[in-house]
Amino acid sequence: MKRFLLFFLTVCFLLAAGCAPAQEADSPAGETEPTVEPAIEPTEETAVEPASGSDADLAPAPDAGPAMEASASDIPDTPDTDFTALALEDIVTDAVEEPGVLPRIALDCPGAQAINGDVTAQFSQDAADPEYTVYYEASRTGDVVSILLVDRTPMNDVILYGVYNLDLTTGLALTGEELLDQLDLTEEYVAGLECEKMGKLYTELYFQLAGQMGDFYQQMYDQTVAPDNADTGRVWIGPDGQLRSIGRIYALAGAEYYEYPISLGLYF
Fold first, then answer.
1. pLDDT for the residue numbered 155
2. CA dist 187 to 27, 166, 179, 214, Å?
3. Can you tell me the mean pLDDT for 217-224?
4. pTM of the entire predicted model
5. Half-sphere exposure (CA, 13 Å, Cβ side) for 52?
6. Residue 148 · residue 236 · CB < 8 Å
7. 99 burial type by CB count under 10 A (0-12 exposed, 13-18 middle, 19+ buried)
8. Which residue intervals of 83-214 are DSSP H helices?
């Protein structure tokens, strides 16, 4: 009986030990491992609102887009230098009360300032003197305005000339060389034409004195047609569209030479 009772108690003890939960070896006695909740995917209801106040101001914008271009009011005004739409009478006006005496370029551009300043400096004093005869002619060919100013002095009938060209597309004054370049002409070619035309004019003026002057006649002719006597700096386009220049004709009497407008036979 005692042996049966001992056997029964042993079996009960073993059954009780087998039913108890096993303890984790790494966990300290008396402590339990915390429970980890599964991650929750954000939805429209759970999405975090963007930061407000100063935090929102510091956060960079996800897409700033292209930089804003300057408006028309932010761009400084630039002067209009294209005057090709204007008529000649709106471009060249009279600088004094008497018409046809002194020209004035009535445009706001560097070329007008340069031409008007030179006209005033070179010819205004003579224009105010009744003993002098001062007048001008203006013409337009394409986008170029040309002016010839004539100043006839009372002494020995000496005539002074002013030649001006203005490019209406740029508002700049053109030198003779620049005008020839726009016309696709070389200075050498135009200088040759000038010498040829000056030789013809010299002959027309003095042929009757050829026999009397002998070698001096030939000497003055040679100086007139010499290449270094050509002046491609004073060229312009006349009212008939023909290229013209100022020619120096060496004289047989009076002054060393006299100047004359010469037509070169080239039309534009």
1. 79
2. 107, 19, 10, 33
3. 98
4. 0.70
5. 2
6. yes
7. exposed
8. 88-91, 110-127, 176-182, 187-206, 210-213
